[in-house]
């Protein structure tokens, strides 16, 4: 066998080997990327469920003729902002804006619920009672969905950053994705005052 033929065989084997590795890496990247997208879809679905619950109880509260309107308006404005944020799961700033809007909605809604305590007629309606039952389960679902999203992002980032996948990830345009982070200040213990005398 001549040197020319041997060189040709080595080149062909290398091309086949790199092609096979490239296909395998590409398919693996597609797989983990889709897992991240599905996980993010679950996060959005659970936030939508919360928004739907908020919407139903807001309608009940709006029907209460003498309810404090300024608190209700604050919730409605926060709801509009939270539902208008477009998220790019590849952009940490986009995720942060979404998270901030959801946090503002949750905070304003918590204030609304505190004000609602002063309205006994409102608290006795079936819709209000059902809301109070459903919202706890929904918040738990949101936490699970965010945790699952971060797990999917972790698997994706490991795939994108490890050798030799990192070479193919760069070639195919796959880059590290941001995690869903905890709300700012959540690392601090809440300041609870007990004024018992």
SSE diagram, text form:
Elements (H helix, E strand, L loop, with lengths): L2 H60 L6 H16 L7 H25 L3 H4 L2 H36 L3 H8 L25
Helix pairs in contact: 1-2, 1-5, 1-6, 2-3
Residues in helix, % = over 70%
Mean pLDDT: 83
The structural class is mainly alpha
Query: N-to-C SSE series?
Result: HHHHHH
Instruction: Give the C-alpha Rg.
Output: 25 Å
Low-pLDDT segments? 189-197
Largest sheet: none
Report the count of strand segments: 0
For the record, give the distance between the C-alpha atoms at the N and C termini, rounded to a whole number.
99 Å
Taken as a percent bin, the fraction of beta residues is under 5%
Count the helices. How many?
6
Shape: rod-shaped
Could you please describe the fold and organization of this structure?
With 197 residues, the chain is mostly helical. Helix content is 76%, strand content 0%. It has 6 helices and no strands. Helix 1 (3-62) runs antiparallel to helix 5 (126-161), helix 1 (3-62) packs across helix 6 (165-172) and helix 2 (69-84) packs antiparallel against helix 3 (92-116). It starts with a helix and ends in a 25-residue tail after the last helix.
């Amino acid at each position: 066998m001549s040197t020319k033929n041997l060189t040709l065989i080595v080149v062909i084997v290398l091309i086949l080997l790199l092609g096979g590795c490239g296909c395998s890496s590409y398919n693996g990247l597609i797989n983990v990327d889709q897992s991240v997208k599905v996980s993010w879809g679950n996060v959005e679905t659970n936030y939508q469920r919360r928004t739907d619950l908020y919407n139903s109880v807001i309608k009940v509260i709006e029907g209460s003729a003498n309810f404090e309107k300024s608190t209700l308006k604050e919730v409605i404005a926060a709801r509009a902002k939270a539902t208008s944020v477009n998220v790019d799961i590849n952009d940490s700033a986009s995720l942060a804006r979404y998270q901030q809007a959801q946090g503002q909605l949750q905070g304003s809604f918590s204030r609304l619920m505190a004000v609602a305590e002063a309205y006994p007629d409102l608290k006795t309606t079936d819709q209000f009672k059902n809301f109070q039952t459903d919202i706890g389960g929904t918040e738990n679902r949101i936490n699970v969905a965010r945790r699952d999203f971060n797990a999917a992002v972790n698997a994706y980032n490991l795939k994108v950053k490890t050798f030799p996948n990192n070479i193919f990830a760069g070639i195919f345009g796959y880059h590290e994705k941001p995690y869903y982070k905890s709300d700012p200040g959540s690392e601090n213990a809440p300041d609870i005052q007990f004024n018992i005398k």
